[in-house]
Each structure stands twice: as C-alpha cells, then as structure tokens.
User: What shape does this take?
Amino acid sequence: MTTAFFPYSAALILTALLGLVFAHQRGKAYLMYFQQEEYDAKRFRHWLSAHHGRDRATSIFALVAGGLCFGLSYGFFWLEALGWAALIIGLLDGIRRSRRSLLQAKKPLVMTDRAKRILQLHILFSALLTGLIYAGVRFGAPTSDLAASLIAIVVLAQASPYFLMLANAALQPVENRVKARFLEEARQKLRRLDPYIIGITGSYGKTSTKSILAHILSSAAPTLATPGSVNTEMGITRVVREQLEPEHRYFIVEMGAYGPGSIARLCRLAPPKLGVITAIGWAHYERFKQIETVFDAKFELADAVAQSGGTTIVNQDAIPGHLLKKRLSDGMPFICVGSDKDCTLRLVSADQTPDGVRLEIVGDDMGEVVLHAPLYGLHQAHNIMAATAAAHSLGMPIDAIRAALSSAPQSRHRLEVVRSGDITIIDDAYNSNPSGFASGLELLDILKAKDGRRILITPGMVELGEKHEEEHHKLGELAARHVDIALVVTPERIPSFVAAFEAQKPSHAQLLRFNRQEDAQNWIKAHAQNGDVILYENNLPDLYEKPPGF
Assistant: This one.
C-alpha cells in the first residue's frame, strides 16, 4: 500500500500546487485583457465570446486524463499514472500559454493597486471554489483523486475569467471609496490652484489639437495638458494630483466620451471655461449606435462651458450640419472654424508639403493669415485652426500664434513622420478613424522618393459598428490609388477593404496577408528598400489582433 500511496499522493500535491500557479498566471493573463477593457464586465464577456478567449488546451488535457480514468474500472491501474501525467502536463502547458500571452502583449498588464487586489481575490476564489468542487466530487460521489482533480481543474480553467469578474464586482465598494477620495482630492486642488481649464473632445482630432494648443499656450504662459490619450475620470484625476502645480496658468483637459453623461461627469471634475469640439463622427459608433447620441454626448462639453459663461470652438466642417444648426440657433456662445463663409475663422486653402502643412485662413478680427506647422496630414489644418481660435480667444496675438506653430511638435504615433536612413516612416499607429487614415494614404505620394515604394501596414479600424464595411471599402479604393504594397494584418476583420483594394489596384500593386502585426513587421525588416515610405496605419490592441491561444 505504501509504494502505491506515495506516487499518487505526490501527484495530487503537485497538481494542487500547479493549480495555484495556473490560477495566478491565467488570472494575470485574463486581467491584462480585462484591464484593456477598462474592467468593464460586459465588454470583457463579449471579448471572451467573440475572440475565443476561453480555455481549450488545459481542459482537453484534463479530459484526456478523464478518459484514462475509465481504465480504472476495468482494473488497468497503470492508466492512472498516465492520467496524472496528462493532467500535470495540461497545467504546465496552460501556465506556458498564459506566460506567452503576457510576454507577447503589445500593451502589457499594469499592476496597479486595483489590479493587484483583483488578482489576489481571483486566486482566493479559484483556490476555494476548486477546492470545494474537488472535495464534493471526491467524497460525495465518491470517486478517485484523479477524477475529482480533473473535474476541479476543468472548472478552474473554464471559470478563471468569471472568477476575475466576480473579484472585480466584490471589490467594487472598495474601489468606489478609493475613487471618491482621489476625486475629491483632485477637485479641491483644482479649486485651490484655479487654473484656466480648457476642455477638448471630439470623435477624432482631440489629442492632436490638444498637443498643438498646449504648444501655442506654453509659449505665452506655463501650461499643463493631460498626456497622450489620457481622457478618463481617473486618468485626469491622477494628472491633477501628481502634475498640476501653482505656476500652471492653463490646464488643457482631453475628455473622452464612453457613453452619455461621460463628458458631463468630467466637466464636474474639471469645470472648463473654454471648450473645443474637433469632430462628430463614427469613430465610436459601437458605443453610441446613433450619430445624434454621439453629438449629444460630445456637446455636454458645450453645455458645461456655457454654464461658466465661456465659449466653445467647433470644427463646423466635421460636425453634421443639421445637428449643429439647432445648437447655433439656441444662442449658445460658439466660435465656428471651417470652410463655410459664415465661419468666424475660415479656411481658404490648405496644402501638404514635405515640410508640413501650410494653410491660409481669414478671421473676423485678424484678416488674412498664412500659417505653417511641421505637421503631416491635411486633416491637421482643422486641428491647427481650432487651436489657433482657442489661443486667439484667450488674447494671444496672431503673430505669436504663428511663431509658435512654426515649431509645433508632432504627436507621437499620429501621422508622425520619422526618417530612418533613406526610408521614411509614417507612424499613425494610434489614429483609428477614416479621416486620419485617408490623410495617411495621401501623404504616401508626397513623401515617396523617386524610385521608392509606397507601403501600407494596417489591421483596419475598430469601433465603427455598422459603418465598418462601408468605411473600409472606401479606404480600400483609396489605398489602391496610393499604395504599391499593402500588408494587411488580420484580413478577415476587413474583407471589404481587401476586396476593394484588389478590385481597384493597378497590376504592379500587391496585397499580402498576415495574422499578426509582428509578422508584417518582420516582412518590412527583410524587404524594405532605400526610398520606401511606409505607413503604419493603426495598431490593434491585444484584444482585437488574435485569440489568446488558451
């Protein structure tokens, strides 16, 4: 009995220990995706279903072990050893797959205090519930240790993402208290320091406009802007608590809309005295479903600005006219920029040169002005106009604005032009909207060397809802006129783009398909030539690019 007892007892203990390691590593892997979905359980469940995020491999190994268990009933006790081996190998393979997912992530898991709390409670739930399942099967049936263990492991592998959501829900009261404390600290600091707050929102263009405006205002007075794409309540709160100083005269806040009421909530946190609305479009159609809902959500900024007696600058060319007309007729204070003759600041012409954007504008109180900024993409003309109107409304002379624009820095990963030897890179990895995509394609012709090729790498755009196929079809046709080699990542996501490109492309043009961004990048490393210009148009987060392979 002793010789038979020892190895199977050791196997049981080893399985339990590996189960804990599996719970930790698989929990971290799922937490990375959960974090990218901003801890939204509904969106995370959708990702699990749409992108085959549930476990397969470990469960299959466990089921193989289950098959071997049947041999015990026929007296083939040596099959039990194979069953334990299959179960242990399955756990080791599951740990390996989880580690691979974490190591290959383009956006790694950030172990914030909240993430740590969720992971710790996830491990506790995993240990308790699988332990109870093991005990219930083992002593309630009763059955063998192997059979009870494999059932517990299958439950662990399949339920791991749900344990994570359960942990998040259980911790919500704690998170709410922490969030409330941080928000109140930020509000008090804003009231105490009282910077001039400028809110910027829009379906697209808000980050670039924020960057341009921050550069202009910084030439006149100390200015703080929320960094990168930080545009959520807690992101803004952290910037206020950690970066806002008494010397900052201006605080420019990018405001993201994740549903009706989002902008209003941000305006209560950081009440704006001046607003900028860059565009109303389909960039986040999946969240809002109707363009009217997008409009109302973004114009919560204008409502808040009006309450403080301020003015909102709107890009009239990028906002549905029938919706804007009603707002303008309500008598709210707006400054309109755009191509229409009735705009306060009117665009006369815009040209893209190898050195940047040149635009001619006419203003009611500034006359005809020529501006130049070392930025790329003709859509930047409207961003420059909005920033110019904002700075001018704050009292900056147009000559000072023009001088500041001449040294405006490029926004990282937003049609950022970088030259690497004799190869030109257009990095638009963070810009996923039809307008920016089209600007990037048109820029290929301008920046291409005489004998160089125009190369596009793209996985397409996201969050376009029912406009997904239509917009990608249009861009596929446009790409056929401006691209020599198209490297399409996850082409099954954008069949209309692929079909339109292949139908319209000239005979010399090629379309190559890749499953991962990394594979397309490796092709570039092997085949790029001097004189090539390469457009990186969008870079899907881990949520979209490929199934996690669990």
Notes: The chain has a mean pLDDT of 89.
